[in-house]
Design brief:
alpha/beta, about 400 residues, two-stranded antiparallel sheet, Rossmann fold, globular, ten-stranded mixed β-sheet
Length: about 400
């Protein structure tokens, strides 16, 4: 199903509205979906990239298929029967990017970010931060993990027209959560590494067919990526995934961890995390134990930074921060006091300053260096501790 043309009732029905901001950088942003391989061991991601302007460009749906509404209803409410309600409320909301837009060539190549989503979400729910980074000159590959941590996901089997769906899985009864989540985080980090391998193959001239969109040829990336400048990034479960990916793959130069859920990472790995990490926390999620683990990493690398954005909650680092309306407020009650546009600007600018420093970019992102030290309105080093929730 094409995530542009699937029929939906209008966004704004049932009092819910999504208004994702366009990228604030100098470049237009395009996106496409990429699926490689016909098994679970393949990859599925949404690619955000600088593109050439195109009149009348179509915009992709934020929720790409109705099955994702079922997954969200199950994860957030424990009531899959609410899926039609969510589909009516948010099913036709769009992302302000050019769907399958033509890549804007860059002779020096774009730096690459592999992005890992949080628990119970999926590849499109971080479109605001991914769009923002792409508008400043990055190619961003937002993975959809197949470890049963996505609200739902799927792959296309070798049999034409056949899909196999992978549902969200809660911790099995009688099993310790750490061991269950630890296994998942290792699979997730390995998927980040495989995603990098995919782009290395493309840059090396290997033909990689995209099962979903044969009209958007991945070979256009061949001479337009700088794979000496690669970072890994993620939110919550994806934040700790990014930290672990630094251990697994030497080509990742640094990591940006948005409100990282540090619980699933085993203690033995902390001495192995030698590269810089930027932890951008919200005010109401982290615990003293979690921040103590981050500080263990900062003691090993003087370039690791921990900052907190005051007035924000865990969900403010997702697109849910931009979804408003009575229905949404009833379902997703947690709200920060900081304007979501300002929170996104702080988060993205801190990330850009950090990426310039550690990917050796020739940009002007150093103008936001103070954010890395917790200097500025709403930003502090470390923070008061709120209650922890996933």
């Amino acid at each position: 199903a094409d995530p542009v043309s699937v029929p939906r009732l209008g966004c704004g029905s049932m009092g819910a509205m999504l208004a994702l901001p366009p990228g604030q950088g100098p470049l237009q942003v395009g996106c496409t979906d990429v699926m490689v391989g016909n098994t679970r061991q393949g990859l599925f991601l949404r690619l955000f990239y600088p593109c050439l302007p195109r009149a009348g460009a179509a915009e992709p749906l934020w929720i790409p298929r109705s099955e994702y509404c079922g997954g969200l209803a199950d994860v957030t409410l424990g009531r899959r029967w609410c899926s039609p309600l969510l589909s009516i409320a948010i099913g036709s909301c769009k992302v302000p990017v050019s769907w399958n837009g033509p890549l804007k060539p860059r002779s020096s190549g774009y730096p690459l970010i592999i992005f890992s989503h949080g628990l119970g979400t999926f590849r499109t729910l971080y479109s605001s931060i991914c769009t923002e980074l792409a508008s400043w000159g990055f190619v961003v590959a937002a993975l959809e993990h197949r470890d049963h941590s996505a609200a739902t996901t799927y792959f296309c089997t070798a049999e034409a027209g056949t899909e196999e769906w992978i549902p969200f899985q809660r911790v099995p009864q009688g099993q310790k959560e750490f061991y269950f989540r630890n296994k998942q985080v290792h699979q997730r980090a390995q998927e980040c590494v495989r995603a990098l391998r995919l782009f290395q193959d493309i840059a090396g001239g290997r033909s990689v067919p995209n099962i979903l969109h044969r009209g958007w040829d991945l070979s256009v990336l061949k001479d337009n990526l700088d794979l000496t400048k690669v970072a890994v990034m993620g939110h919550s479960f994806g934040g700790v995934t990014a930290v672990l990916a630094l251990v697994k793959e030497p080509s990742f130069r640094c990591a940006v961890a948005l409100d990282a859920w540090m619980f699933p990472l085993e203690n033995l790995l902390y001495p192995e995390v030698l590269k810089p990490v930027l932890f951008i926390n919200t005010e109401k999620f982290q615990t003293p134990e979690s921040v103590a683990k981050m500080k263990r990493l900062s003691s090993r690398n003087s370039q690791t930074r921990i900052v907190t954005v005051l007035g924000t909650v865990h969900e403010d680092q997702t697109d849910f921060a931009f979804l408003s309306g009575k229905l949404f407020t009833r379902i997703f009650s947690r709200r920060g006091t900081l304007d979501p546009h300002k929170a996104l600007a702080i988060t993205s600018r801190a990330a850009l300053a950090f990426l310039q420093r550690h990917l050796k970019l020739e940009e002007e992102f150093a103008q936001w260096d103070e954010l890395l030290e917790g200097v500025g309105d709403s930003v502090v080093p470390d923070a008061p501790f709120g209650r922890s929730h996933l």
